[in-house]
Predict the structure.
Amino acid sequence: MPHLQEHQGESPIPEVAALFDEIRAANSPTPLIGKTVEELQDLLQTEAAVEQPNLIAKVEYGKLCMANSGPDTNGSQFFIVTNADGASWLDGKHTVFGKVIEGMDVALAIQEVETASDDKPVEDVKIIGVTIERI
């Protein structure tokens, strides 16, 4: 939401702040379900057209990103950029969610596991837990 980007994740509009808190608490966009575009425009006090957002974050080393096959494909893959020079050819194509602050050694170790011909690990690799912090 550009509104939240503009206000660095904290809305000065109490109703928007409350809705965003619900989304965060649910760890899901479920609180948005059933709301119309017009309702959200009223809530945001805007008449701005709803547009596909531009992906402006750079796909750099250590960034957590999401790729999918395109609109309405319902399949996503998450990845951490391990290339020291980043992946500039993916800028504007994939959503950047965050950055690894600690534990990049784990991502680098995962990329070294043995893989089969389909490039999937021979043995399952499981990430048991992560800590997400807002910085």
